[in-house]
Amino acid sequence: MSVTQHTPIAIPPSARFWDRIANRYAKRPVADEATYQKKLQMTREYLEPHMRVFEFGCGTGSTALTHSPHVAYVRATDISAKMIDIAKSKAREAGVKNVEFEQSDIESIAASSAKYDVVLGLSILHLLDDRDAVVSTIYDMLEPGGIFVSSTACLGDHMKIFKFIAPLGRFFGILPILSVFTTQDLVGCIEDSGFEIETKWSPGKNKGVFIIARKPL
Ligand SMILES: C[S@@+](CC[C@H](N)C(=O)[O-])C[C@H]1O[C@@H](n2cnc3c(N)ncnc32)[C@H](O)[C@@H]1O
User: Of 7, 26, 184, 211, which residue is least crowded by CB atoms under 10 Å?
Assistant: First the structure.
């Protein structure tokens, strides 16, 4: 199996927003525990002990650590150094050895020869400048037959006003990058990258979309 090589990359200013809120984010309870558990379970059905998992936008690492006993290895990345510090201390406290946390920007990561069986992008695709490029990179990072699991707020479905608010909020540093698109746009992007969607689940009205997609063999 090929070895993962990641070249160090510059961290953009947008990381500052996430660094600022990292401590609060870590303390905040999950907004909808039942939905979170269901997403974990739906993901878990795809995990096998030999698998290598890549997660981007991992935040404080809870999901990576939860899945870690069920796979061989997890590489979990986030743009925020503070989020990564918290994730690393959680891993140390829990004695987890097969998760590597790393600060990196998914928008700068090059698809290397490293191949993963599963990629997780949870609550992150709407926080990127170039979602389509990232989904295409993820496609390249996966083994044929590999799985891409995403959970995404599709603000274009119900809060189009964010198209105007988001740039202002970003300018004043009170909002992160926020991309406004619909569920249909996202499905189109994932399919256009070559994935076949196996599951598309919406936990409720205006609660985003959870998609499990496969790279064909
Ligand atoms: C809404 S939080 C989601 C965290 C976690 N995935 C979860 O579901 O709780 C978004 C995370 O994405 C990270 N992030 C934002 N832009 C990123 C980028 N370009 N590359 C990597 N991580 C990024 C933020 O630092 C933050 O931790």
Answer: 7
3-state secondary structure of 215: coil
Structural contact between residues 121 and 59, judged by C-beta atoms closer than 8 angstroms: no
Give domain 15-214's CATH number out of 3.40.50.150, 3.90.25.10, 3.30.450.20, 3.40.190.10: 3.40.50.150
- Indicate the pTM of the whole model: 0.92
Instruction: Please report the sign of the dihedral spanned by the C-alpha atoms of residue 176, residue 179, residue 182, residue 184.
Output: negative
pLDDT digits (tens, 9 = 90+) for 67-122: 999 999 999 999 999 999 999 999 999 999 999 999 999 999 876 667 999 999 99
Q: Atom 12 of ligand 1 has which residue's CA nearest to it? A: 57
56 in contact with ligand 1, CB cutoff 6 A: yes
Reported as type and span, the H/E element at residue 198 is strand 196-201
C-beta of residue 71 within 8 angstroms of C-beta of residue 98: yes
Query: Residue 183 and residue 143: Cα distance in Å, rounded?
Result: 26
Interstrand relation of 99-103 and 116-122 (parallel, antiparallel or unpaired): unpaired
